Amino acid sequence: MAFLSGKVVLIPTDTVWGFAFSPESKEAYEKVLKLKKRNPDKRVPILTYSIDRAYRLFDNFNPRIYGLTQKYWPGSLTVVGKASKKVPEHLVDENGKIAVRVPKKPAPLDIIKALDIMPATSANISGENNPADLSHLSSMFSKEEFHFLNKTKSLPAKPASTVIETTGKKMTVLRKGEISPFVLGDLTSMDIKYQTNEPLSICFVCEGNTCRSPMAEYILKLKSTKTDIKLNVSSAGLKVDNKSFVYSDKTLRVIKEKYGVDISGKPKKICKKDIEEADLILTMDAKIQKKVQKSGGQGKTKLISEFSHKKTHVADPYGKDYEAYLGVASELENHIDNLIKYLASRNFTLIT
What is the chain's Cα-based Rg? Predict the structure, then answer.
């Protein structure tokens, strides 16, 4: 496409506005690096129009992630790997690698088909927020620095794509995006390592969100402050009574007397958004687990006891005496200690 020669163009992608250019134009590539103030050692992702074409951009694509790419391409997955010799040299990083994605958005796909591949990266200064609205670009760039290919003013707010790299049976998550690392592991049976400083979202679920799940929530919050693991922790219930305005008084007492923390909160019923946004959902028994899985939590919903290499249920202390609540808290603490060990072993820690 001659009109792209040497030019940087602004395109809407599945997630944010992006700077794109002809794959053959090293001049445009250098313009993008200058616009973004980007380290030249950092690769510019390559967009292509089909899954089969994406495979051929790599030298020896890992067959263990065929199923994963079939599910998430076109869409929110970016794969890093060794580049084929046919990829233009300026698009390959110093380690001989490229990052590839197959987008859903019709506008860039039409152009990509004409070009075969199109390098594109978020239209922002490196390290700053990714723009979803054109008005946000005006504070970063002047309009003379790039060309428009679409008149759309805004895009739906979505997380950036999940970025992975694989070697044999191991997968490294380089950017979390919208695909849970636990879903990645479930779909591929690969050993997952987490190499990003994005927090992991964990939601505990029990029946009424008055006893077990709020106890687990606050135990993990307390313990995670003593580690380098960055977490967003919450809890919810399947059947929350509209008359339940506070957590159980015995729950509050256990957390206060055993852990020295005053907590307050209102029981919350789990919703679709909670399930979508959580990276890991931990349930107290198999019945709850199955219900959450059926509601969209496949691949990332587990029994909390699984991290202690068990598949036992955490008994509901509701209606029982204080000693029963203390016993449940101790059981949850044991499972949570093992969860933290698991996360640490997978590098779910802050990268400094």
Answer: 23
Cα three-residue angle 245-239-329, rounded to 5 degrees:
75
Q: Which of 43, 101, 211, 212 is catalytic?
A: 212
Q: What is the DSSP string of 292-338?
A: HIIIIITTTEEEGGGGGT--------TTS-HHHHHHHHHHHHHHHHH
CB 78 within 8 A of CB 101: yes
Of 59, 186, 316, 337, catalytic? 316
- CB contact set of 347 (below 8 Å; sequence gap of 6+): 193, 194, 195
For residue range 166-212, list pLDDT tens digits in order. 999 999 999 999 899 999 999 999 999 998 888 999 999 999 999 99
Catalytic-residue membership of 316 = yes
Which one is catalytic: 14, 43, 101, 206? 206
- For this structure, is 279 an active site residue? no
Amino acid at 87: V
Q: Is 264 exposed, middle or buried (0-12, 13-18, 19+ CB in 10 A)?
A: exposed
The closest alpha carbon to 131, from 32, 11, 30, belongs to 11
C-alpha angle 343/344/349, rounded to 5°? 95
Nearest to 251 by CA among 234, 239, 263, 242: 263
pTM: 0.88
Helices (H), ranges, 59-194: 66-72, 106-115, 181-188
- Residue 238, token pair as written in the block: 């399947």
- Residues 250 and 244: beta-carbon distance below 8 Å: no
Provide the β-strand partners of residue 205.
236, 283
Clarify whether 206 is annotated catalytic: yes
Dist. CA 23–CA 83, nearest whole Å: 14
Q: What is the pLDDT of residues 88-102, one digit of tens each?
A: 999 999 999 999 999
